[in-house]
């Protein structure tokens, strides 16, 4: 595979995880080869959109033969950085932090949760599965000395920026932020703000769209 030198648009980047998931389902169902037309039908995209997207990375199919599903999923996984593993911490060991820690799938996918952090003395010292909840005061030192690459923020929004700042000061380069506020980060740090409520509000808009007078 030869990647094109132009910067890939965020719209394409945002579709890659979806390709990865659909191809995984096809593998699960023993489908070995698929045309861009068939894949497009499954994913709600046009065949030409699929070819355009994959061409950003040099293209993978052979005209007339379609895509080798296993190879394509492997390549997309590698483009997504899923062939590596990542050390992570969760900050905020409340409802959401614990739910994420309890999801075993992340470990299988290479996201290694090393520790959780909280301010609540009743939580500090507990474990969620085998993950220890540590004192927030130890966050900076811990991430610096344990090669933590991803910080997962699950604290109330008032505290998310200060948590992010501590992570960044101690060399964390990627933040997955669940607090409902946009956290600012310097250019050398990447962030994904996960707006669960916004997705829910989109759903309610769609439910009520017909009754809008616009
Ligand atoms: N639970 C959900 O389904 C959900 C959905 C969408 C968004 N969120 C957002 O995720 C965040 C967490 O939600 P939750 O439901 O888990 O809340 P929660 O109150 O159950 O947990 C928050 C935890 O953060 C800890 N905390 C507070 N300040 C801290 C700090 N400075 N450093 C370290 N820990 C600190 C608290 O002690 C608590 O244990 C919130 O910002 C919330 O708005 C949650």
TrEMBL record:
Presence of the UniProt keyword NAD in the record: yes
DNA bind region: 18-57
Gene3D superfamilies assigned: NAD(P)-binding Rossmann-like Domain (3.40.50.720), Winged helix-like DNA-binding domain superfamily/Winged helix DNA-binding domain (1.10.10.10)
Major place of residence: cytoplasm
GO function terms (MF aspect): DNA binding; DNA-binding transcription factor activity
GO cellular component, one term: cytoplasm
Keywords: Cytoplasm, DNA-binding, NAD, Repressor, Transcription, Transcription regulation
Subcellular location: Cytoplasm
GO BP terms in the entry: negative regulation of DNA-templated transcription; response to redox state
Domain CoA-binding: 81-182
Binding site for NAD(+): 92-97
Keyword field contains NAD: yes
Protein purpose: Modulates transcription in response to changes in cellular NADH/NAD(+) redox state.
Subunit structure: Homodimer.
Family: Belongs to the transcriptional regulatory Rex family.
NCBIfam families the UniProt entry points to: PRK05472.1-3 (NF003989), PRK05472.1-4 (NF003990), PRK05472.2-2 (NF003993), PRK05472.2-3 (NF003994), PRK05472.2-4 (NF003995), PRK05472.2-5 (NF003996)
The protein's name: Redox-sensing transcriptional repressor Rex
Native organism: Alkalibacter saccharofermentans DSM 14828
């Amino acid at each position: 595979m030869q990647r094109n030198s132009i910067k890939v648009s965020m719209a394409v980047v945002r579709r890659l995880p979806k390709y990865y998931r659909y191809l995984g389902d096809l593998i699960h169902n023993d489908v070995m080869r698929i045309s861009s037309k068939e894949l497009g039908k499954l994913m709600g995209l046009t065949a030409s959109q699929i070819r355009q997207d994959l061409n950003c990375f040099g293209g993978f199919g052979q005209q007339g033969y379609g895509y080798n599903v296993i190879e394509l999923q492997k390549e997309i996984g590698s483009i997504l950085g899923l062939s590596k593993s990542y050390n992570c911490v969760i900050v905020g060991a409340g409802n959401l932090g614990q739910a994420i820690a309890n999801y075993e799938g992340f470990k299988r996918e290479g996201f290694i949760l090393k520790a959780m952090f909280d301010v609540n003395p009743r939580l500090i010292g507990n474990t969620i599965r085998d993950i220890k909840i540590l004192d927030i005061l130890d966050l900076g030192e811990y991430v610096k000395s344990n090669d933590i690459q991803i910080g997962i923020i699950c604290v109330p929004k008032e505290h998310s920026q200060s948590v992010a700042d501590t992570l960044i000061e101690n060399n964390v380069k990627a933040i997955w932020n669940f607090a409902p506020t946009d956290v600012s980060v310097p250019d050398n740090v990447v962030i994904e703000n996960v707006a669960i409520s916004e997705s829910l509000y989109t759903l309610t808009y769609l439910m009520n769209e017909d009754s809008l007078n616009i």
